[in-house]
Amino acid sequence: MVSNELLERLGVEIKPELVELALTHSSFAYENQTQSNERLEFLGDSVLGYVVASYVYQKHSDLSEGDLTRLKNSIVSANALAVAANHLDLGKHLLLGKGELATGGRQRLNILADAMEAIIGAVYLTGGIESAAKLIEHSIIPLLDDPVSLRELADPKTTLLEKLKDEKAKPEYEVSFEGPEHNRMYFAKCYLAGELLGQGEGTTIRSAETSAALAALRTIANR
């Protein structure tokens, strides 16, 4: 059952059954023989792209096509979506399989980003493009006007180093991988003096460490 707290945080009309579906990860769906949020994620991705592209086009009439593309990409990235999901506290509401729960799935960047897109898709199905745009404008668009957030999204590892500059130890990354060389997935864990601060995944070592650093920043912010 979806909490009233989350519905209030979203700030738009949305069918409770669609919220629950949007929060249902494929691992939970597989274990419980139910639908996952993947179709809603697909829809939300397209809606998000349209709304953000329209916003930056109208807001920044002086920017070239290339600059508009870079600005749009920064705000529809998995990093940005994960930050927005964290602000809405989506992580604690996710329906995850046992394996994902055991390995910190509630803080995993890709899972949070996918859930955010699925929520956007659910809002679109409930109230149309205007409702979806309202959610995007109050939960994602503000990141464009927040240089600190944009910097974190652009270079989480450097930001993490700066935030921990007064610590005696520096963050360290432990990386593992699964799969053949042509289709490999990397998993990174970020530690500070032996304490696990965050973990992430990606198709390269760099992207996995970046995801882990962003998760670590969320851990620090929530302390």
From TrEMBL:
Cite the EC number. 3.1.26.3
UniProt keyword annotations, A-Z: Endonuclease, Hydrolase, Nuclease, RNA-binding
- Which intervals hold domain DRBM? 155-222
Entry annotated with the keyword RNA-binding: yes
Identify the enzyme class: hydrolase
Keyword Hydrolase set for record: yes
Q: Which InterPro entries match?
A: dsRBD_dom, RNase_III, RNase_III_dom, RNase_III_sf
Under catalytic activity, the entry for this protein gives: Endonucleolytic cleavage to 5'-phosphomonoester
SMART domains recorded: DSRM, RIBOc
Q: Where is the RNase III domain?
A: 3-128
The family database entries (HAMAP family) matched by this protein are listed as: RNase_III (MF_00104)
What's the family?
Belongs to the ribonuclease III family.
Protein's UniProt name: ribonuclease III
What organism does this protein naturally occur in?
freshwater metagenome
